[in-house]
Design brief:
Elements lengths: L4 E5 L8 H14 L11 E5 L5 H5 L11 H7 L15 H15 L16 E4 L8 H6 L7 H6 L8 E5 L6 H9 L2 E7 L2 H20 L5 E10 L4 H14 L3 E7 L2 H5 L7 H4 L7 H25 L1
Parallel strand pairs: 1-4, 1-5, 2-3, 2-4, 5-6, 6-7
Helix pairs in contact: 1-12
Length: 305
């Protein structure tokens, strides 16, 4: 196993499906699928959003959490390098939370949680509301944009892929994600206002590349919450392709009640539902995972070459 590829999922506009994309993409890439040509990866999801919704998606009861992302930031606030393992939920812990959430939602189902509620290669570095105060602490520190990179350094050889969820802002937490990342993935909602905000995000990308992370590159832009058969969805997708060209990923994520409801049972829809036509949300996220997996293979080949 070489050093992990780090992907930051960023859009400062809220409600565009960042966390949903992170959890489904991370889950699918960890599970892998020979049928879809996706090799399994050892994946770490890092939650930098103080709302902590990644943990919620996997059924984690926040009151039972031990140390979180906030505590890790506090430990590296002075630039010290430490082992992040005590702050990470390992696959077996995540599996227990997922199964517990399913049982709470289905108390009268005697057969127990389905096999999909088990992760062998997926870990989570969770966040909670305490993380919202860390930006004030960071603001007074020299090299404040490098703290996440320092925090993750000792874990880089332990994973194939690290996926970072970010808050709906371009503050210091998001800048830390961009500084730590190799690649940027941008989910945008299929609406006109979403395209208007892309300029500011790409300006930030350029500034981070120039000032602190010249290796940061755009992996792709994915359209989310696409209303099937709507003129608006088609119009926005066509406008995005004209403006961003090949950076727009082919897969479009449909608006789906099943995607929104999946966390109730402790798993993202890509794990809780089979990727078939009857489950379009799951199928779309598996198709997105296949696209990202193909790009990862190219990245790793270039690295090894």
């Amino acid at each position: 196993m070489g050093r992990a590829v780090v992907i930051a999922v960023v859009n400062h506009k809220g409600g565009c499906g960042k966390t949903t994309t992170v959890t489904n993409l991370g889950g699918a890439l960890a599970a892998g699928s020979s049928q879809m040509g996706i090799l399994p990866n050892k994946v770490l999801i890092v939650d930098l959003d103080p709302r902590g919704n990644v943990a919620t998606t996997f059924g984690v009861e926040k009151r039972s959490l031990g140390p979180t992302m906030n505590n890790l930031f506090e430990a590296v606030i002075d630039g010290s390098r430490i082992d992040p393992a005590p702050y990470i939920l390992a696959p077996h812990e995540l599996t227990n939370y997922m199964r517990g959430a399913w049982k709470r939602q289905n108390p009268n189902r005697p057969r127990g949680p389905p096999k999909s509620h088990c992760v062998d290669r997926l870990s989570l570095l969770p966040a909670d509301l305490d993380l919202s105060g860390i930006e004030i602490e960071l603001a007074m520190r020299i090299g404040r944009e490098h703290r996440l990179r320092i925090a993750l350094e000792s874990a880089m050889d332990d994973y194939d892929l690290i996926v970072i969820d970010t808050p709906a802002s371009l503050g210091l937490l998001t800048i830390n994600a961009l500084t730590a990342a190799d690649w940027l993935l941008v989910p945008i909602q299929a609406e006109f206002y979403a395209l208007e905000s892309m300029g500011q995000l790409l300006d930030t990308l350029n500034r981070v590349q120039t000032a602190v992370n010249p290796k940061l590159r755009l992996l792709g832009i994915t359209m989310t919450m696409v209303q099937g058969g709507s003129n608006l969805g088609r119009t926005v997708a066509e406008a995005a392709k004209r403006h961003f060209g090949g950076r727009i990923l082919e897969t479009q994520i449909p608006r789906s009640i099943a995607v929104a409801e999946a966390p109730l049972e402790g798993a993202p829809v890509a794990l809780s539902k089979s990727p078939i036509e009857r489950h379009p949300g799951s199928l779309a996220y598996w198709n997105l995972a296949r696209e990202v997996s193909s790009r990862l293979e190219i990245i790793r080949t270039q690295r090894s070459g």
